[in-house]
Design a protein that fits this description.
Phosphorylase Kinase, domain 1, 4 domains, alpha+beta, four-stranded antiparallel sheet, Transferase(Phosphotransferase), domain 1, 444 residues
């Protein structure tokens, strides 16, 4: 084994693949632990592999982003090449999924979100990864998610090193257009990330070989089995995200990685209220990947401890209040009491005058409840009242009102509603993505 590369002292070999060997090393005099990826000398003389290896180093050095493995140096020595990069203590997603029947939807969404942020950064710089798969995604013991291996990445300004068919990608994760050899853009990475997301949720790939058809045929021609059928706990919001990622035609997928990021953030906003890294560390501890002592050491910061305590206490309080309310309600029903549920805050909420402009009593007012997917600002007769989701219906004067739902990332919607005294009108709307129709001007 090589003992030293540049100013790095080799400690041990930690992995090997078809093209390269990876070592753990100490970078002196900083004393920093690094990983060194060495191109195998047996193929270093092949121009195609050597160029691809050097390209990977240049791409990764240019992509300085928290969810991408950082490159510190590139060295040519002894007839081969070495990439000196960040050393990540953790487990790759391939091993995390090994033997698993699926990850919790929140964990899968957090991992997908972090990878999407890495790819969004790369796409902005004109770089397409083209080989998104679990083995190229690392989850560190500190809860970070890191994207690796830009070996077959490409830009429009560089020639394609895979034209001969070597190293084209991993079949199960390839998009239909990648299989057909069509011109690719960032939406091919959206497909591949969707495949990984599906696999995390269900423990299986959406397309796999069988005795009748190859995986490449299935990707091009077949529909995948919905994740909810494979894993009934999969939320419908996640099912909608998957359906857009895994659309056969690129035009039917998310138009950009940023759009996918928005949907993942909306899904996680109400489900994970603590730091994502802390959430991931707790999951790794529960799975036995991290010991109790190691997890406690990582989480031993005041902010994280306080965050966990607040979440647990809030949930206990909410459960206690809910249980007390249920007991009181049951006793009242058994005692024959007539119960009238009202919305106290709605009484004092501003009302929109239908004709007279006079505020009404609770018995005279009507109410409007709005559910918008994913969310929207609610304007009634030109006045902004709430942003969904909200628990207390909006109190309005009886009569005709015009409700406008505004979300900067979707087309605005205007509805006419008729409010009646003492009744609640429910308005449900699924917002539609903008498609360059000029809605931006309308909203301003």
């Amino acid at each position: 084994m090589i003992e030293k590369i540049g100013n790095c002292r080799i400690v041990e070999e930690v992995g090997a693949g078809g093209m390269a060997v990876v070592y753990r090393a100490i970078q002196e005099p900083l004393g920093r632990v690094v990983a060194i990826k060495a191109l195998k000398s047996s193929i270093a003389s092949e121009p195609q592999f050597a160029e691809r290896f050097e390209r990977e180093a240049r791409f990764m050095a240019d992509l300085q982003q928290e969810n991408i493995i950082n490159v510190h140096d590139f060295i040519k020595f002894g007839g081969t090449m070495f990439i000196v990069m960040e050393y990540v203590q953790g487990v790759d997603l391939y091993d995390l999924l090994d033997g698993s029947e699926g990850l919790p939807s929140e964990i899968a969404a957090i991992i997908t979100l972090q990878v999407a942020r890495a790819l969004n950064h790369a796409h902005f710089r004109g770089i397409i990864h083209r080989d998104i798969k679990p083995a190229n995604i690392m989850v560190s013991y500190h809860g970070d998610v890191k994207l690796m291996d830009f070996g077959i990445a490409r830009t429009d300004t560089l020639s394609d090193l895979t034209e001969t068919g070597t190293g084209l990608g991993t079949p199960s994760y390839m998009s239909p257009e990648q299989i057909l050899g069509d011109k690719l853009d960032g939406r091919t990475d959206i497909w591949s990330l969707g495949v990984v997301f599906y696999q995390m949720l269900t423990g299986q790939k959406p397309f796999a070989d069988d005795s009748k058809r190859s995986v490449l045929q299935k990707i091009r021609l077949d529909r995948y089995i919905q994740a909810r059928r494979m894993s009934p706990s999969t939320p419908r919001a996640i099912e909608r995200i998957l359906s857009r990622c895994l659309a056969k035609l690129p035009a039917d997928r998310y138009p950009s990685m940023q759009a996918l990021i928005h949907d993942l953030e909306d899904f996680l906003a109400s489900r994970v209220v603590i730091n994502y890294n802390a959430y991931m560390v707790n999951y790794l501890k529960d799975q036995g990947v991290l010991s109790e002592d190691k997890a406690s050491e990582i989480l031993a910061t005041g902010a994280v401890r306080a965050g966990h305590r607040i979440v647990r206490e809030d949930r206990r309080v909410l459960r206690s209040v809910g249980q007390l309310y249920a007991v009181v309600l049951a006793l009242m029903l058994l005692g024959g009491f007539a119960i009238q549920l009202t919305w106290p805050s709605a009484v004092t909420a501003p009302t929109v005058a239908a004709s007279t402009g006079v505020a009404l009593s609770p018995s005279e007012a009507g109410y409007l409840n709005v559910i918008a997917d994913p969310w929207a600002e609610v304007h009634v007769d030109g006045v902004h009242f709430e942003t969904t989701p909200f628990a207390t219906p909006i109190a309005l004067n009886p009569g005709v009102h015009y409700v406008k739902l505004v979300n900067p990332y979707f087309r605005s919607v205007t509805k006419e509603v008729v409010i009646e005294s003492g009744k609640t009108i429910k308005l449900t709307e699924r917002m539609a993505m903008r498609r360059g129709t000029g809605d931006e001007k309308e909203d301003k």
